[in-house]
Amino acid sequence: MIKEKENIEKDKAAKTKKQDPIIVIKDLHKTFGKDNKVLQGVNLTVNKGEDLVILGRSGSGKSVTIKCIVGLIEPDQGEIKVFDENVLNLTKPELNEIRVRIGFLFQSGALYDSMSVRENLAFTLKKHKRDLSAEEVESEVMEALDNVGLSDAIDKMPSELSGGMQKRIGLARTLILKPEIILYDEPTTGLDTITSREISELILDIKHKRKTTSIIITHDMACAKLTADRIMVLKDGVIHAEGTYEELEKDEDEWVRSFFQ
């Protein structure tokens, strides 16, 4: 009986931990120009350790939402809490402290063309951790590259890398600061089916190894199916539907189901 009670308490604790919100967005609005209302009251919560996929047609505000989270775009209205901090009220130094804990993988990988892979990663690391020795920087660079399976590309230039390799290096550069949250903006765009799956599996592997929390913006339904703990669908500037891949695939709403066909 005592053991059974202990198991119940453990289950409760596990559920509580699972529902521990790390990102909370309330009533987020953003309009560009006079009447291009992209976000019209987005509400979402991402729990610690969760991979949330956001789907939506082009221009629906998916990328705008995650750029608001890190302060790359300033919303017109709403609240964004990350690590229990309202990022919209933070000073620039305070926002930079939050940003170091959040990795952002851009669609292009955003590598510096004039720098080698080693220099790209080292530059990012030294910018935020100035007290590291040359040996420590080298060790961190090698570890990050090892995590994405590209240690042998350390001295290559971005122009020498395939699209898939550039994505992996971009991810390594994101991982080098050991972020707690990673925001993926179309991580498999422009890649062939096999490479797309490799990137999706890498996202899943990073989650399990690093215990990260992620938001993944994607049009790639294979990526969504493989990585998502939960999916939200944006339509007309608001969250239109929410559920697991399997739940939304069978949703009564024909528009929602259209993503899964």
Automatic annotation (TrEMBL):
Record protein name field: Putative ribonucleotide transport ATP-binding protein mkl
| GO molecular function annotations of the record | ATP binding; ATP hydrolysis activity
Gene behind this protein: mkl_1
What's the source species' lineage?
Answer: Bacteria, Pseudomonadati, Bacteroidota, Flavobacteriia, Flavobacteriales
What organism is this sequence from? Flavobacterium bizetiae
Q: Keywords assigned by UniProt?
A: ATP-binding, Nucleotide-binding, Transport
Q: Where is the ABC transporter domain?
A: 23-261
The superkingdom listed in its UniProt entry is Bacteria
PANTHER family the record matches:
INTERMEMBRANE PHOSPHOLIPID TRANSPORT SYSTEM ATP-BINDING PROTEIN MLAF, PROTEIN TRIGALACTOSYLDIACYLGLYCEROL 3, CHLOROPLASTIC
Which InterPro entries did the record assign?
AAA+_ATPase, ABC_transporter-like_ATP-bd, ABC_transporter-like_CS, P-loop_NTPase
Where exactly are the transmembrane stretches of this chain?
none
